[in-house]
Amino acid sequence: MASESLRCFAQLALIITSFLLQHRSLPSKNSLAILTRGPCNLIGPYFCFTIYQFHMAITMAAGIAIANTIVFRYLVIISNHMITVTHIYLLIFIGYIFPIIVTIIPFTGKWDFVVLRNLTRLDHSTYDLSVYGEYPGFYDAQNIQFLTATVILAIGVYGLPILTSVLTRKVLILIKYHQNMGLLVQTVYPLLAYIPSFTCYLYTQTTGEEILLSEHLILATASSPGLLDPLISFYFVVPYREAILYFLCPNKRPKRIVVAVSVTRSTTL
Q: Strand 32-36's sheet: what is its strand order?
C-alpha cells in the first residue's frame, strides 16, 4: 500500500535529516534559531535551513503515515474488506499534500540570518552561541508564512493523535480483540512524543519564556519515529518477529501451534 511506502520513506528520511542537522531549536517570541551541529554545517547555513524545512515536513509525513495505517485498518473492517480506490487515493493525497505545503511555505518568505543572529543574541544574552557558527533560522516569527506553517504543524501534532486514538478504540471494539498491543503502542506513542515538546515550543513562542528542556527535546521526539516505529512493528507483528528471530537464531525455529479442525457433514436421507 502507498501509505506503507510513505511510512518507510519518512522513517528513513527522518534518520538521515536528523543526522545531517543534529540541531537544537532556540525559540524566542519574535524569532526561531536553528542551532545546527551536524554535517550540514560543512556546506553552510542556507543548506542547513533547507534540510530543516524538509525535516519538519518529513516529521509530519511520518505522523500522517502512522495515522493512515490505522485509518486504513478501520476502513477495511467497516467496509468488510471492500475498500474503494477513492479511499486509497484520499489517504495518499492527505499523506503528501500537507508535508508538501509545510515544505514550500518557508521558501516564499525572506531569509536574513544576520538579523536572526542579532535578535537571538539580544534575547539570549547569557548563552554562548559562538560554538554554533553561522546558524540559520526564522528572524520574523510573526509573518504569515511562519504562522501558517506553525498552524498546520499544530493541527497535525494535536489532531493526529486524537484521530488515531478514536479509530483505534473503534477497531479494537469491532474486532473484539483487546490484546492488540502493537496498535495501542502506535496510538499512544504520538501522544507522548509530539504533544509535550511541541506544547513547550508554542508556549515559548507565545510568551518568550525559555524552557530549556524543549530546546533539546524537539530533535529527539521528532526523529524518534524513524527508529522506534519499525521496532514496534518488528516486535508486535508476528511474521516480522519470527523472521528476525530465525535470522538471529537460525537453529532455533519459532514454535508454531497447529490447530486441527474436523468438519462433520451430515446428510438427511
A: 23-27, 32-36, 137-138
Cβ neighbourhood burial of 40 (10 Å; 0-12, 13-18, 19+) = buried
Q: Would you state the cell numbers that stand for residue 231, as one nine-digit string?
A: 521496532
Q: Is residue 32 one of the residues assigned to a domain?
A: yes
155 closest CA partner among 196, 98, 106:
98
CATH of the domain at 55: 1.20.1070
Tens of pLDDT along 140-163? 888 888 888 888 888 888 888 888
Give the structural domain span for 36: 2-248
Total number of domains constituting the chain:
1
Task: Kindly report, residue by residue over 176-199, the tens digit of the pLDDT.
Answer: 654 455 666 666 676 677 777 788
Q: What CA–CA distance (Å, rounded) separates 134 from 113?
A: 8
Residue 261 lies in a domain: no
Residue 151 lies in a domain: yes
pTM for the whole thing? 0.76
Pairing mode, strands 23-27 and 137-138? unpaired
CB environment 179-200: b (16+ within 10 A), e (fewer): eeebbbbbbebbeebbeebbeb
Q: φ, ψ for residue 253 (rounded to 5)?
A: -75, 145
